[in-house]
Structures are given as structure tokens and as C-alpha cells.
TrEMBL record:
Signal peptide: none
Organism: Spongiactinospora rosea
GO cellular component terms given for this protein: plasma membrane
Protein's UniProt name: Diacylglycerol O-acyltransferase
Entry's EC annotation: 2.3.1.20
């Protein structure tokens, strides 16, 4: 019996007519090595039938508690058939792949079956196909999403072919109606005590929580809470998290725009080595440069840094869930990125120091505030209020300007249904609370594959922003000095739409 956490349920409640809460990715596949040199819906469905037992998120559906009195449960879908989730189409000329994918990403998933879809799209250049897959964020985070994807992939064109999935030895079931109501009654009575614990932990991290960190006295309250909890001196101070108003912030519409591209991971790592930075730090510096250029073009560049939400895997948490489990094990860091600095080197070093401070704070603190905030109010209240709170916060006091997420992936090529995966472009969410842009990247086979998702109300030319990211890497590479010869890794071909 598995019940959603308050954080998992928050992703459900955040959905509205203008907000979807699924994560997705677009795999570009060369079917040359596949059987008969092609990939069809039938071959995808056959693969899913063989391997769905390796990915619980594909088999489970939501079982709601009557009247929304408690958090939903996960349960095996007795009528599960992958064929009901897989669609096949050909790219209609003259539309771009990104236009089709953006429309697919706008649509909410049905909650009456497992929360995922897969779309096989033909008609790309060189006979390639695109496979767009989306899964609801209540079921996976970035890392578990990568694990789910890995269950379908092979290291060689003729990968292993496991037997069809056996019936689960211990199937996931939800309680009956009486059991749900009894559980809801118990959870309702004990909720105030749990909420007090969440409130204490949130207070200790108040200076790291977007919006709250800018309130008068937030740092004092956080220090006092840590002192009372015996954690005095463990949490380094953070820079200001005051969010500047830009075109990126504010309520979103229901429309989406998508752009994608690949950059050489070797160049990004070389910059990191030159300045003592991780790949993620360099990505943040690239985003700072790209966003500065984009905002300056529109004459709306603020005089203080933008604030980015950076999702972080919380895999070490002892919650009894192992690899492949359903749900989220994430937290988030809020970090300034130095869009206000004109000098490239100064901007790079400032971003490095901001990320170091954020990571030191994250390492020294439990960093559970994202889950704790989700658990403060009883489930019936959060179910009714979340979407409205997101909307109002987006209007009045947005907590961040954008989301920047980096998911580590494999360094070797992988194969799907015998076809080589050329690239994998991830897609995240945009919400009223987080703003109209999310930048997500996935390291794969020597490249960093970027997926930029935007609401056109805020970013109407997302391809222009992708171009600025490429220019930012060129700028940082120049600062790092000439590349060694021969290069350790080569740039992967950027796949045309």
C-alpha cells in the first residue's frame, strides 16, 4: 500500500486550465539498426509489455480518497495495457517537430489510468523518428524519470529481450473505502502534530525559502529556530533571494513553446575545470549570460540578479523507497544568477560563488522545506487552494524567475527497439509560481541536450534564447583558453526539426 506524499500531491493540485504538471522528453532515434530498419507503434508496445514490470510508474494509477479527505493512493491498474498509452503519427508538413511536441505538452493526462503517454512521430529528416514521452510529476522526479527511461533502453542494437512481465509478486493495492476513510480520520487527528514539525523545520530554513527569505526578520527567525533545534552555526548564510520583476514572471497561459539543441559536454567540462566549477555551475553561468542578453535586447534587464529554482535529488533520504519507486524525492535550491553583471568573467565568478553558497547551505541543512511546506495544511485544504495560491503568488510575489534543472545521464550511446538514440531533450514544467520559462538539460553520450519550455505570454521566441545559450558557451570557452588537441569528446550533431 503506497500513499502519495504531500509533495507528490502538490503536483496534482497545481494543475489548472493553464498549468500541466507532467515532465517529458523527446528522444530522437535513428531506426537504421532496428528490425526492418523501422520503429512502429507495435514494436514500442511490444517492448513496453516486456519491460513495464521494471518501471512501476508505468503500471500504477491513482486511487482517490472519498471527498478528497486524504492523500490519494497508488494501485495497480487491473486493465493496464501499454497499447492504450502509445500513439503514432507523422509530422504534418510544414509543421516543425517542436510545434507538435509543444501542443502535446499542453494537454493534461487522464487521471483514470496510469499517468503517462508515449507518442511516436515519423517524418523527421534522414528517416529518424521522435518519441515524445510524458509522465506526471506526482509519479516521478528527474532521477526516477531517468531510471524509468533506462528500463526501456539497451546498450547495443540487439539488447536483451526479457520475458513478458510476470504478475507482480506483491501487487500494489489501495485500501477499500472504509480503510481509506479510517486512514483519513487518523491522519486528520495527527496532522496538527506533523504540521508543527514541518513548521519548525521550515522556520529553520526560512532564509532559504523563496519569498519568505525576503521578509523582515527572516534571517533572525531562521537562526533562532536552528538554535532551538541544536543546529546553530550549521547553516551558512545565503545571499539575497529578492526576485526582480521581469517578463519571465507572472501567471502563465495554457500555451507552450519548445526549443531544443545539443552542446558539447567536453567544452562545458573544460570550462568547469578551468574555474573549479561543476557542470551544473557552468550551466547556471551559461543561463546567466543567455538571459542577460535576452533581457537586454528587450530593454528590460534588471539591476539585480535573477533568482533560479534548482531542483536537487534527495536520494539519501531514508523513506523506505528504493530505486524505481514511484513519487518524488527532491528538494530545491534557490540561487541568484548574475544577470546584472556585464563583464563575462565577473559574471562567471559571481555565479560560481552563489552556487557554492547554495550548495554549502543545502549540504549543512536537511533541506526539506519543499516537502514541509507542502505538508503544512490538511489535504482537503491544499487540494482546493493550491492552484489559486499559485496564481495569486505569480501575480503578487513570484518566488523565482525560472527553473533550471540538470539531470545526469549515460555517457555511452543507448538503443531503443534496436534504433540508436541520437539525442534526448528533456522538458519540465512552467507554472504561475515558477514563471514562464524552464531550462532543462540532460547529459548523454558526450553532449548536454537542452530542452527549453516556455509560455509564449512570457517568452515568444524561445529559439532566440537557445541561440544565446550557444553564444554563452562560446564566451565561456574563450575565457577558459584554447582547447587541447585532440579534444577528448566531440560535439554531437544537433538534430534538425
Amino acid at each position: 500500500m503506497r500513499q502519495l506524499t504531500a509533495l507528490d500531491a502538490q503536483f496534482l493540485h497545481a494543475e489548472s486550465p493553464t498549468t500541466t504538471a507532467h515532465v517529458a522528453g523527446v528522444a530522437i532515434v535513428d531506426p537504421g539498426d532496428a528490425a526492418a530498419g523501422r520503429i512502429t507503434k507495435g514494436t514500442l508496445v511490444a517492448l513496453l509489455r516486456r519491460r513495464a514490470h521494471l518501471a512501476p510508474a508505468l503500471r500504477l494509477r491513482l486511487a482517490g480518497v472519498p471527498f478528497g479527505l486524504d492523500l490519494p493512493y497508488w494501485a495497480e491498474d487491473p486493465g493496464f495495457d501499454p497499447a492504450d498509452h502509445v500513439y503514432e503519427t507523422t509530422l504534418p508538413a510544414p509543421e516543425l517537430l517542436t510545434d507538435v511536441v509543444a501542443r502535446l505538452h499542453e494537454r493534461r493526462l487522464s487521471r483514470h489510468r496510469p499517468l503517462w503517454e508515449m507518442h511516436l512521430i515519423h517524418g523527421l529528416e534522414h528517416g529518424r523518428v521522435a518519441i515524445y514521452t510524458k509522465v506526471h510529476h506526482c509519479a516521478i522526479d528527474g532521477v526516477s524519470g531517468a531510471e524509468t527511461l533506462a528500463a526501456l533502453l539497451d546498450l547495443a542494437p540487439g539488447g536483451p529481450e526479457p520475458a513478458c512481465a510476470p504478475p507482480p509478486a506483491d501487487p500494489v493495492t489501495a485500501p477499500g473505502t472504509l480503510g481509506m476513510l479510517a486512514g483519513a480520520a487518523v491522519n486528520s487527528m495527527t496532522h496538527p502534530l506533523r504540521a508543527l514539525g514541518s513548521l519548525r523545520r521550515t522556520a529553520a530554513d526560512l532564509d532559504a525559502v523563496p519569498i519568505a527569505a525576503t521578509l523582515p526578520g527572516a534571517r533572525w527567525v531562521a537562526r533562532a529556530a536552528r538554535l532551538l533545534g541544536g543546529e546553530a552555526g550549521r547553516a551558512p548564510a545565503l545571499p539575497s533571494l529578492e526576485v526582480p520583476r521581469t517578463p519571465l514572471t507572472g501567471p502563465v497561459s495554457g500555451q507552450r513553446r519548445f526549443a531544443y539543441g545539443s552542446l558539447p559536454l567536453a567544452d562545458i567540462r573544460r570550462v568547469g575545470r578551468a574555474f573549479g566549477m561543476s557542470v551544473n555551475d557552468v550551466v547556471m553561468a551559461m543561463c546567466a549570460a543567455a538571459l542577460r542578453a535576452w533581457l537586454a535586447e528587450r530593454d528590460v534587464l534588471p539591476d539585480r540578479p535573477l533568482i533560479a529554482a534548482v531542483p536537487v535529488a534527495a536520494r539519501a533520504r531514508t523513506d523506505g523507497r528504493g530505486p524505481g519507486a514511484v513519487g518524488n524525492r527532491i528538494s530545491a535550491m534557490a540561487a541568484p544568477i548574475a544577470t546584472h553583471l556585464a563583464d563575462p568573467l565577473e559574471r562567471l565568478l559571481s555565479t560560481r560563488e552563489a552556487m557554492r553558497a547554495a550548495k554549502r547551505r543545502f549540504a549543512s541543512s536537511p533541506a526539506t522545506w519543499l516537502s514541509d511546506l507542502s505538508a503544512l495544511l490538511p489535504p482537503p485544504v491544499t487540494a482546493l487552494a493550491t492552484a489559486s495560491v499559485f496564481r495569486l503568488a505569480g501575480l503578487a510575489c513570484p518566488p523565482v524567475n525560472l527553473i533550471v534543472s540538470n539531470v545526469p545521464g549515460p555517457r555511452v550511446p543507448l538503443y531503443l527497439c534496436g534504433g540508436k538514440v541520437v539525442a534526448y531533450y528533456p522538458m519540465s514544467v512552467v507554472t504561475d509560481l515558477s514563471g514562464g520559462l524552464s531550462v532543462t538539460c540532460f547529459s548523454y553520450d558526450g553532449s548536454l541536450d537542452f530542452g527549453l519550455l516556455a509560455c509564449p505570454r512570457h517568452v515568444d521566441d524561445v529559439w532566440r534564447l537557445l541561440g544565446h545559450l550557444r553564444a554563452a558557451l562560446d564566451e565561456l570557452s574563450a575565457l577558459a583558453g584554447p582547447a587541447p588537441e585532440p579534444a577528448a569528446e566531440t560535439a554531437k550533431e544537433t538534430v534538425p526539426a
